[in-house]
């Protein structure tokens, strides 16, 4: 077990408690989103401290770091991978038995590699990543509302050809400007909701069973706004763990 100091554990519990309180206030009577604690570049002991306090959903940006932490931390942690997954790392991702969700699927090639690599584990949940802001610096597919159908084609492929993948929903990373302007509805979140609704309609039209698709939107800067706008899952890192060291 990764060891931690009681002082650090108390700090982490206070931080995550403040985030949960903010989520409660933002959600009001609405359903509250899942909180995924993003522990990128933080030690496994930090995750262990929050695990011992009762938390189970954690996320990482680098697949090798996730695999290394998953190997030494409790096996009932539900891991989320929130970074870009290169095709040569798909087999590694599929080998992590308690990887709960890959939040960044954006290509048929990676979907097929995951499908071929999954064997002795339940179906892997996936979100399809949507680049709602259109920024070149962000990964993801074009929104379905822009008369482009890459998102639909990937969703159809997952539903029809990847029985070991479960299409759980859509994910986006909002632009910096939108994420720091709380005076108006976030256009990236509005866009993701519109894409979700249109995608579900088209999947049903295609004769495919389609439950309500989740929305993974909201990070440390904008999780409260995302909660108010109907997010199913928020990804919070620095507000819980503090500033991260630079990656070497």
**Structural class by helix and strand composition:** alpha/beta
- Give the CATH topology of the domain at 61-233: TIM Barrel
Q: In terms of per-residue confidence, which ranges show pLDDT below 50 for 5 or more consecutive residues? A: none
Main sheet attributes: strand count, strand direction, barrel closure: 8 strands, parallel
Global Rg? 18 Å
Give the CA-CA distance, first to last residue. Answer: 26 Å
**What is the architecture of the domain at 61-233 at the second tier of CATH?**
Alpha-Beta Barrel
Topology, number of strands: 8
Strand content: 15-25%
User: CATH superfamily of the domain at 61-233, please?
Assistant: Alanine racemase
Share of helix among residues? 40-55%
Q: Count of DSSP helices?
A: 10
Strand order, biggest sheet? 7-6-5-4-3-2-1-8
Secondary-structure element sequence? Answer: HEHEHEHEHEHEHHEHEH
Tertiary shape: globular
**What is the typical, i.e. mean, pLDDT?**
94
The CATH class of the domain at 61-233 is identified as Alpha Beta
């Amino acid at each position: 077990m990764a060891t931690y100091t009681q002082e650090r554990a108390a700090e982490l519990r206070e931080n995550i408690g403040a985030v949960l309180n903010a989520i409660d206030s933002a959600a009001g009577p609405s359903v509250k989103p899942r909180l995924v604690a993003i522990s990128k570049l933080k030690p496994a002991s930090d995750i262990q401290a929050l695990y011992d306090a009762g938390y189970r959903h954690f996320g990482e940006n680098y697949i090798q770091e996730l695999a290394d932490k998953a190997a030494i931390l409790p096996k009932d942690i539900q891991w989320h991978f929130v970074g870009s997954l290169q095709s040569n790392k798909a087999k590694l991702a599929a080998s992590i038995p308690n990887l709960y969700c890959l939040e960044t699927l954006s290509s048929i090639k990676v979907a097929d590699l995951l499908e071929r690599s999954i064997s002795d584990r339940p179906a892997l949940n996936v979100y399809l990543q949507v680049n709602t802001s259109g920024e070149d610096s962000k990964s993801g597919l074009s929104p379905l509302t822009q008369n482009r159908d890459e998102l639909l084609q990937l969703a159809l492929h997952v539903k029809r050809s990847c029985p070991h993948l479960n299409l759980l929903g859509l994910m986006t990373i909002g632009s910096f400007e939108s994420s720091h302007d709380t005076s108006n509805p976030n256009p990236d979140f509005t866009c993701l909701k519109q894409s979700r609704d249109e995608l579900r309609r088209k999947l049903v039209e295609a004769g495919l069973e389609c439950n309500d698709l989740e929305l993974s939107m909201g990070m440390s800067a904008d999780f409260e706004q995302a909660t108010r706008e109907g997010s199913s899952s928020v990804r919070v890192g620095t507000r819980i763990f503090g500033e991260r060291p630079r990656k070497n």
